[in-house]
Amino acid sequence: xxxxxxxxxxxxxxxxxxxxxxxxxxxxxxxxxxxxxxxxxxxxxxxxxxxxxxxxxxxxxxxxxxxxxxxxxxxxxxxxxxxxxxxxxxxxxxxxxxxxxxxxxxxxxxxxxxxxxxxxxxxxxxxxxxxxxxxxxxxxxxxxxxxxxxxxxxxxxxxxxxxxxxxx
Length: 168
Description:
By secondary structure, the chain is of the alpha/beta class. The protein has one domain (12-167): 3-Layer(aba) Sandwich (Glutaredoxin). The protein has helices spanning 33-37, 53-65, 67-72, 86-96, 111-116, 159-167, and strands spanning 12-18, 25-32, 41-47, 77-82, 103-106, 119-122, 128-131, 134-139, 142-148. The protein has a five-stranded mixed sheet. It is globular, with a radius of gyration of 15 Å. 39% of the residues are buried.
């Protein structure tokens, strides 16, 4: 399992962006983790799935609401990562109004979740292999802080906890 001081795995996320005005879309586009984190501080949080109750009602909204505070703390970007496809993440971004605040990144085949050891097997619930709920502060691709939730919990991966770590 990934730990503080480790470099993020060189996997690739997919991102689907919409362009306001004409309704045209850009994507899905590849987001190579190593390149996208270079020379940046990233507040990254992972969760089991788009449009799920806790993720939609608490996890994502907390980061959207605190986006300005993260910027003030020196965070360049906030990333939400989930084992969903880029189109689902794009629709969820629209639903959660994340544009300009949180990048919604798809880990469609769970490559990142598997490489970091942050997987959650929800096969019994019909959801297959997913990401566990966590947050991490990453600088230039290296994990500075890591907050992994226990099963069914939402206590340490919230925006307030990671923001306090970013401000420290």
